[in-house]
Amino acid sequence: MMAVAEHIASGLHRERAVLDGEIVCVDRRGRPQFRDLLFRRGQPCYVAFDLLHCAAGDLRSEQLTDS
User: Fold this and answer.
1) What is the pTM of this model?
2) Which residues pair with 46 in a beta bridge?
3) Strands (DSSP E) along the chain, which ranges?
């Protein structure tokens, strides 16, 4: 699990941020497979789906957008 945390931290360029997401194992088609995570099969990865706070401040009240 530490490797996942280190990878996330390296992508934030040393900014403090709060992300919301899940640790999952994905199949060949990119679909999450809970059983693979539960039984430690496959490579776990962190899927972040929301940035709640960063250097710009609290983003929870900001409008959701696609980029």
Assistant:
1) 0.58
2) 23
3) 18-24, 45-54, 57-58
Cα–Cα distance for residue pair 60/17, rounded to 1 Å:
12
Bridge partners, 47 (sequence order): 22
Residue 17 CA to residue 61 CA, distance in Å, equals: 15
Domains identified in the chain, total number: 1
Q: Span 43-57, mean pLDDT?
A: 83
Could you tell me if residue 11 is inside a domain? Answer: yes
Range of the domain at 20: 2-58
**Using CA atoms, how far apart are residues 24 and 64, in angstroms rounded to an integer?**
23
Q: In what order do the strands lie in the sheet with 45-54?
A: 18-24, 45-54, 57-58
